[in-house]
Write a structure and sequence with these properties.
Elements lengths: L14 H7 L2 H4 L3 H17 L5 H19 L12 H13 L12 H37 L4 E6 L2 E7 H26 L1 E2 L15 H7 L4 E2 L3 H6 L2 H28 L6 E2 L18 H24 L14 H24 L1 E2 L1 H7 L7 H10 L4 H18 L8 H7 L13 H7 L8 H11 L2
Parallel strand pairs: 3-4
Antiparallel strand pairs: 1-2, 5-6
Helix pairs in contact: 3-4, 3-6, 3-8, 4-5, 6-7, 6-12, 7-10, 10-11, 10-12, 11-12, 14-15
Length: about 450
C-alpha cells in the first residue's frame, strides 16, 4: 500500500485493505498521461531551480524509458504500490536515483490524478469526435444515394406522411452534429491544468504551474487549489454527453431494427453484422444493432453512478473520487464502440426502395395535403381539417381510400375542391411540394446535401 509513503505507520497494511484501496486495475490506461504530466512537472521544477539541468535531463530520460517499457509490456503496475503515481515514481527512483526522488516536490497525488484524468478525457473526446465524424459522413453518403427514395414518415409509430428516406437519415445526422457540439464544448472545460494545486492548498515552493500547463498543451489553469483537486465536473459533463449520444444511437438502432424486420422490410442489414438462431436456421438477427440499443442503459448508468459519487462529498479531495474512473472509462469506450457499430451497419445496409415507396403510397397519408390544398384556396385551416377528417371517416367506413374518390365526391365534402386536387393525391407530389425550410421537399433535401458536401 504505497511502500514509499508507509513511514507514518507502525504496522504493515492489512492485505484486504491493501487490495481494496488499490486502483492499479483502473490506472493502467493512465500510465502514459502520468508520465507526460511528470515530464511537464520536471520542467517546471527545473525552471524553479529545484532540479538542476543535469537532474532534469536524467529524470526526463528515465520517464521516457518507463513509457517505452510500459508500451513494450516490460513494466507493469504493481498493486502493492497502490496506484499509477506511486508505481511510476518508484520506477523513476530506481532509474534516476536521487534526481528521481525530487520529482514529487510541489505536487500531490491529488493534483496528479486530476491531471491524468483530464489528459485521458481530452484524448477520449478527440477519439470519439473522430468516430462521430465518420458516422456523419456515412449518413450523408447514404442520404445522397437515396435522395429520390420515398418512405413513410411516422408519428406514434403509425404511418403519417410521405418523406424522403434521405430526410430521415439526415435527421440522424442532426442528432450527431449536436453531440459533436456538446463534446467540443466539454473539451474546453477539460482543457485546464490542475497541476500545482498540491493536495489542496497549493505549495510554498516557487513553482510556476503555467510552465507545466503549457508543456501539456492545456489552455486553462486552475484558479482555486481546493477546487482543482476535487473537480470532476469535466468527467460528469463528458459522461452526460456520452449518455445523450448513446440515447441517440439507441434511437437510430431502434429504427434499423424495425426497418429490417419482416413486418417493415425496408432495409436489409449486412450478413457479417448479424447472427442466426441456435435452433431456427432461417433467422437473421440484428444482434449488433440490438446491443447498441441496450448499451444506452449502461452509459446512463455510468452517469448516475458518477453523479451519485460526487453528490455528497465535502470540500477537498476524498478517496471516493477514485470510483469516478470506471464509469468515465466505460462510458467513453461503450459510446465509441457503439458509434463504430452503427457506422458499419448504416454503411452496409441495403435499401429496399420498392417496398419503401409502396408503403409510402397509401393515400391516407395525404390527408394533410388535402387540408393544405383547401387552406390555399382560402378556407380556414381548422375548417379544412374537419372537412378532410369527414372524408377520412367516410373512406374508413366504406373500406376505400382517398385515391378512390372522384372530384364530385370530394366536392360533397367541400365545394372548394376542384379537379386539380387529384394531382395532389400522390406520395411523390406530396414530397415534391414540401419545400418549407428544413422540410422533406426534394429540392430542400438536395440543397442540404450540397451544404454538407462543402
Amino acid at each position: 500500500m504505497g511502500r514509499l509513503i508507509r513511514e507514518r505507520f507502525s504496522k504493515d497494511p492489512d492485505p484486504f485493505a491493501e487490495e481494496f484501496v488499490a486502483s492499479v486495475e483502473d490506472d493502467e490506461r493512465l500510465v502514459p498521461y502520468d508520465i507526460e504530466g511528470s515530464i511537464a512537472h520536471a520542467r517546471a521544477l527545473s525552471k524553479a531551480g529545484l532540479l538542476n539541468p543535469k537532474e532534469a535531463a536524467t529524470v526526463v530520460r528515465a520517464l521516457r524509458r518507463i513509457r517505452r517499457e510500459h508500451e513494450q509490456g516490460k513494466w507493469k503496475l504493481d498493486a502493492t504500490d497502490e496506484d499509477v503515481h506511486m508505481n511510476v515514481e518508484k520506477r523513476l527512483i530506481q532509474l534516476a536515483g536521487r534526481a528521481g526522488a525530487k520529482i514529487h516536490a510541489g505536487r500531490s497525488r491529488n493534483d496528479q490524478v486530476a491531471l491524468d484524468l483530464r489528459l485521458w478525457t481530452r484524448d477520449a473526446i478527440d477519439s470519439l469526435l473522430g468516430r462521430l465524424s465518420g458516422l456523419r459522413k456515412v449518413l450523408v453518403r447514404r442520404a445522397r444515394g437515396t435522395s429520390d427514395v420515398i418512405c413513410p414518415g411516422y408519428t406514434h409509430l403509425q404511418r403519417a406522411q410521405p418523406v424522403l428516406f434521405a430526410h430521415v437519415l439526415l435527421s440522424f445526422h442532426e442528432m450527431i452534429v449536436r453531440d459533436e457540439g456538446r463534446l467540443t464544448d466539454c473539451r474546453k472545460r477539460v482543457d485546464v491544468s490542475p497541476l500545482g494545486a498540491g493536495a489542496l492548498a497549493g505549495t510554498s515552493l516557487r513553482i510556476d504551474p503555467r510552465i507545466s500547463a503549457k508543456a501539456l498543451g492545456l489552455k486553462g489553469l486552475f484558479a482555486n487549489s481546493i477546487d482543482a483537486v476535487s473537480d470532476r465536473d469535466f468527467a460528469a459533463e463528458f459522461v452526460f454527453a456520452c449518455s445523450l449520444l448513446q440515447t441517440h444511437l439507441s434511437q437510430i438502432a431502434e429504427n434499423l431494427i424495425l426497418w429490417s424486420s419482416s413486418e417493415f422490410g425496408f432495409i436489409e442489414l449486412p450478413d457479417e453484422l448479424c447472427t442466426s438462431s441456435s435452433i431456427m436456421p432461417q433467422k437473421k438477427n440484428a444482434d449488433l444493432v440490438e446491443l447498441v440499443r441496450a448499451k444506452s442503459g449502461r452509459v446512463v448508468g455510468d452517469l448516475v453512478s458518477l453523479l451519485t459519487i460526487l453528490k455528497g462529498l465535502p470540500a477537498g479531495y476524498n478517496r471516493d473520487l477514485q470510483e469516478t474512473k470506471p464509469p468515465l472509462y466505460d462510458a467513453a469506450e461503450t459510446a465509441g464502440a457503439s458509434v463504430q457499430a452503427l457506422t458499419l451497419a448504416i454503411k452496409g445496409l441495403v435499401v429496399r426502395k420498392v417496398v419503401m415507396e409502396e408503403a409510402a403510397s397509401g393515400s391516407e397519408m395525404l390527408a394533410t395535403d388535402l387540408a393544405e390544398y383547401l387552406t390555399e384556396k382560402g378556407m380556414p385551416f381548422r375548417d379544412a381539417h374537419q372537412a378532410v377528417a369527414r372524408l377520412m371517416k367516410r373512406t374508413a367506413t366504406k373500406g376505400t381510400s382517398l385515391a378512390d374518390l372522384t372530384v364530385a365526391e370530394l366536392k360533397r365534402a367541400s365545394p372548394v375542391f376542384e379537379a386539380d386536387v387529384l394531382s395532389r393525391i400522390t406520395a411523390r407530389e406530396s414530397v415534391r411540394r414540401r419545400n418549407s425550410p428544413g422540410g422533406t421537399g426534394i429540392s430542400r433535401v438536395r440543397q442540404r446535401l450540397r451544404q454538407l458536401s462543402r
